[in-house]
Design brief:
By secondary structure, the protein is α+β, with helices and mostly antiparallel strands. The protein has 3 helices and 3 strands, in the order βββααα. It folds into 2 domains: 41 residues, no CATH class; 47 residues. The protein has a 3-stranded antiparallel sheet, with no helix packed on it. It binds zinc ion. Zinc ion binds next to strand 3.
């Protein structure tokens, strides 16, 4: 059975273990990386060192969908403001409260 990897981003402040890539032996200071854990600890790898992993493609797709969603929401709000003027603050709060939670977090 293939080992399961977890995916995260060092630029966003995530760290595991020594943060030394097990593929190229260089430190992982920024950007996407994946990691798994064995008895020796965490085994992280740069995204660039694991490009054959198809999960990166899925992560990019999810990020793109989040961006498109945010862009459509922004466009709709802009169109509303041009048509009707600034909405009531309560209306904005209600709209924000109704954004799906996984989109609001912006996580891949
Ligand atoms: Zn590497």
């Amino acid at each position: 059975m293939a080992k399961r990897w977890d995916y995260t981003n060092a630029t966003a402040g995530h760290r595991v273990g020594t943060m030394i890539c097990t593929a190229c032996r260089q430190p992982i200071a920024e950007g996407d990386f994946r990691y798994r854990q064995n008895d020796d600890g965490f085994l992280p790898q740069h995204r660039a060192c694991s490009l054959d992993d198809i999960e990166w493609k899925r992560i990019d797709q999810r990020r793109q969908e989040h961006e498109l969603f945010a862009q459509r929401r922004q466009n709709a709000l802009q169109a509303y403001i041009e048509e009707f003027g600034e909405p009531w603050p309560e209306l904005i709060e209600e709209c924000v409260a109704n954004i799906p939670k996984d989109c609001a977090k912006g996580e891949a």
